[in-house]
Specification:
The chain has about 240 residues and is an alpha/beta fold. The protein has a single domain, classed as Rossmann fold (3-Layer(aba) Sandwich). It is about 35% helix and about 25% strand. It contains eight helices and ten strands. The protein has a six-stranded mixed β-sheet, sandwiched between helices. The chain has a four-stranded antiparallel β-sheet with strand order 2-1-4-5. Helix 4 packs parallel to helix 6. The chain starts with a helix and ends in a 5-residue tail after the last strand. The N terminus is likely disordered.
Length: about 240
Amino acid sequence: MTDFEQNNSTTAPVVACQGVQRIYQQDTVPVYALRGADLTINAGEFVSLAGPSGSGKSTLLNVIGGLDGFDAGRVVVGGVNLGGLNAAELAEMRLRNVGFVFQAYNLIPVLTARENVEFILQLQGTPSQERRDRANAALQRLGLGDLGDRRPGELSGGQQQRVAIARAIVTEPVLLLADEPTANLDSKTTEELLGLLRDLNQQQGMTIVTATHDPIVMGYTSRQVAMLDGEIHQDSASAD
């Protein structure tokens, strides 16, 4: 059992960010992508980080997922302080405890849909038959049970994104992060995909955070966090 799993608690917040700053250098001038962001997300929430381009929503999502570092503040995910992890430990945390869905799908083109879903399990050292069984079950859950042998190029955009979601949830992560997951999809496919995410949240209790600027996506989430200029501008949770 990893330190992450040992520290995870059903009562503690899944995500706790305090005073998080992320600073980039542009021609020796500091540019603040995050300006002291504070955010707490509890188990079972479906949260959208919303805002225009440059608002900091994707940066905050990447910081929470351990894909991007931060320069000040504190980030705790599943009871573990990410600031205390080295690169190898961050990679292990991402592999075992966070699922990622990106707008570009990021599927491996030479692998079948099933093999793409199995890949992360292979990295975890899961035995081959168990990998196959779990990948098939994840694809079935996403309505792709009969498409497991097709490669990404033989699938529609919506089907590819479903494969990406199956890959993200096959490890049963503590947290699912989605960065503009519907950006490349038409409106009908967007509604179908968002319905699937809502079902995962409501029926499976999965904690989901998505970065978006799309009002349709925000309408499916139970909590909307608006960002502007690297700060939390408004949080619908405060109105409850």
